[in-house]
Amino acid sequence: MAVLFAFLHHAAAFALVAALTGELVLVRGAFSVENARRIVRFDAAYGISAMALLVIGLARVFWFEKGASYYFQSAPFLAKLTLFAAIGLLSIYPTREFLSWRAALREGRLPAVAPAKLAAIGKLIHWELVGVLAILLCAALMARGIGHFG
User: Fold this and answer.
1) Residues whose CB falls within 8 Å of the CB of residue 121, separated by 6 or more in sequence, listed in order
2) Residue 9 DSSP symbol
3) How many CB atoms lie under 10 A from the CB of residue 91?
């Protein structure tokens, strides 16, 4: 069972990275009705994969692997949780913006979005991806037992 949850955790992480990358490419590309619809779909996939990643990851911490007492004495694990929360906070603004597009898109209209706003959203998504890279570094440190203070 632990192997299944490890696989699901990794699959959710790859889905999250794919969704964020898709959003970034589309936000920086030509803004059209179809691309706006794709962005909204990628953002939904991002949200679903983030929730799956969190739930599966916590299941691994509490019921599989080394146990919660081990992980909560690991600086890289605590950094991973902090980074995950920071990425989640960064994602609020883009997600709220994308959700506001739904009415226009249902009517087949392009949402009215200033190019500067799209650029700002692109920068936020870029920083979310940087945060994911930092999480990967923390995972590598955890795998080597570096930063365990228990």
Assistant:
1) 27, 93, 94, 97
2) H
3) 21
pLDDT in tens, 27-55: 999 999 999 999 999 999 999 999 999 99
Q: Which residues, at least 6 apart from 29, have a Cβ–Cβ distance to it below 8 Å? A: 35
CA dihedral 54, 17, 95, 139 (to 10 degrees): 40
pTM (whole model) above 0.85 = yes
Domain boundaries, the chain: 2-143
CA dihedral 82, 86, 91, 92 (to 10 degrees): 110
> Tokens at residue 28, please?
């920086």
Render 104-134 in DSSP notation, one character per residue: HHHTTPPP---HHHHHHHHHHHHHHHHHHHH
**Inter-residue contact 89 to 55 (CB < 8 Å):** no
CA–CA distances in Å: residue 1 to residues 21, 64, 70, 111: 30, 8, 19, 45
